[in-house]
């Protein structure tokens, strides 16, 4: 049995937080804490939202419902690019510019790919975001990428909304440039930035055209030292490639730039560009329209996820599934008929 003597001063923040860390919070405490911008409560709320336990789901839904009217004011920015292109370093540099030069509050939802290999090591990105992780205006939430979609955890969207309700002005979501994760991040952000490397192999680096078409801006990273000229050449190459694409529905022509997270060259310009995009998209009504579309996608996604969860967590199904798996493995039953048998049981 652990006994922690209360300090004489009951208002002691450390003591309050310690108590919060060891006991269950009520839904109202979650809501109040988030709206007050309390980061300890915010972090716990994110854990609650990520939980797969049914009781947690119910509480999480109540919290989300209550905070929803306080969301929507943040600028939501997605950052993607192949592994090693410099996303985390860029976020450190771009993010510090946003908090220090612009005085804005920033939340970073970083999906740490190393955690997939090391099962939960989240310090990798925190060390690459050294100054941001000590910045009082910044909040970094690394998520283990064990879940689906090459890094986008199932609950990134809900996490983003919790951060918005906690008063963050800018949300940056880093995603590894693989699989469906770009589409997932694209579908929850307003502005999607694609980072590219100069001179790495063939002219389009095997980068799928689809990803380039999804981007609202492209920037060639690591434009410093002996790499500057290569970056400028790549910029022209990408500009020419993008020129051939049809204009996206927003009417915004995707600009290409170069930057260096080491020298900060091009970083302030990228922020100006971001602001220009938001002005443009707001005036055109595109921002609102895109968010309405995204809410519709969210509805369908939630239905799909909930159905899947309920199916696999159903005790009858769990039992029958084990039997069916065996039968399919041994060739006694074909996969399709086994699937239908299980679905009919549900
Ligand atoms: N010269 C130079 N090197 C950079 C720059 N940005 C990043 N790097 C280096 O590139 C390497 C990869 O950077 P990260 O920021 O970890 O790249 P990432 O895209 O987040 O990588 P993953 O998270 O693994 O997908 C690191 O060794 C960085 O030091 C830059 O602007 N200039
Ligand atoms: Mg990274």
TrEMBL record:
Lineage of origin: Bacteria, Pseudomonadati, Bacteroidota, Cytophagia, Cytophagales
GO cellular component annotations of the record: cytoplasm
Keyword Ion transport applies: no
Record InterPro entries: GTPase_ArgK, P-loop_NTPase
Keywords on record: Kinase, Transferase
Family affiliation: Belongs to the SIMIBI class G3E GTPase family. ArgK/MeaB subfamily.
Keyword Glycosyltransferase: no
Pfam families: MeaB
SUPFAM superfamilies documented for this protein: P-loop containing nucleoside triphosphate hydrolases
The protein's name in its UniProt record: LAO/AO transport system kinase
GO MF terms held by the record: GTP binding; GTPase activity; kinase activity
């Amino acid at each position: 049995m652990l006994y922690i003597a209360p300090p004489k001063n009951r208002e002691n923040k450390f003591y309050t937080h310690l108590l919060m860390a060891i006991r269950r919070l009520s839904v109202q405490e979650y809501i109040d804490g988030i709206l007050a911008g309390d980061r300890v409560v915010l972090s716990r709320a994110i854990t609650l939202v990520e939980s797969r336990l049914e009781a947690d789901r119910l509480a999480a839904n109540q919290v989300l419902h209550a905070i929803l009217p306080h969301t929507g004011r943040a600028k939501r920015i997605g950052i993607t690019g192949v592994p090693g292109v410099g996303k985390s370093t860029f976020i450190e540099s771009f993010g510090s510019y946003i908090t220090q030069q612009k005085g804005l509050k920033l939340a970073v939802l970083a999906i740490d790919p190393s955690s997939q290999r090391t099962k939960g090591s989240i310090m990798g990105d925190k060390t690459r975001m050294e100054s941001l992780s000590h910045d009082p205006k910044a909040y970094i939430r690394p998520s283990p990428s064990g879940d689906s979609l090459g890094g986008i955890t199932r609950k990134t969207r809900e996490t983003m909304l919790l951060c918005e309700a906690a008063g963050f002005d800018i949300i940056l979501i880093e995603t590894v440039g693989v699989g469906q994760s770009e589409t997932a991040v694209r579908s929850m952000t307003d502005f999607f930035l694609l980072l590219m490397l100069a001179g790495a192999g063939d002219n389009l680096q095997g980068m799928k055209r689809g990803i380039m078409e999804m981007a609202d801006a492209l920037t060639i990273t690591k434009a410093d030292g002996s790499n500057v000229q290569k970056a400028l050449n790549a910029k022209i190459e990408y500009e020419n490639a993008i020129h051939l694409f049809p204009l996206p529905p927003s009417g915004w022509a995707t600009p290409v730039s170069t930057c260096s997270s080491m020298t900060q060259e091009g970083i302030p310009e990228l922020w100006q560009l971001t602001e220009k995009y938001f002005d443009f998209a707001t005036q055109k009504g595109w921002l609102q329209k895109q968010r309405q579309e995204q809410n519709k996608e969210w509805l369908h996604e939630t239905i799909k996820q909930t159905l899947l969860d309920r199916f696999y967590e159903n005790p009858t199904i769990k039992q029958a599934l084990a039997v069916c798996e065996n039968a399919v493995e041994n060739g006694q039953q074909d996969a399709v008929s086994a699937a239908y048998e299980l679905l009919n049981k549900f």
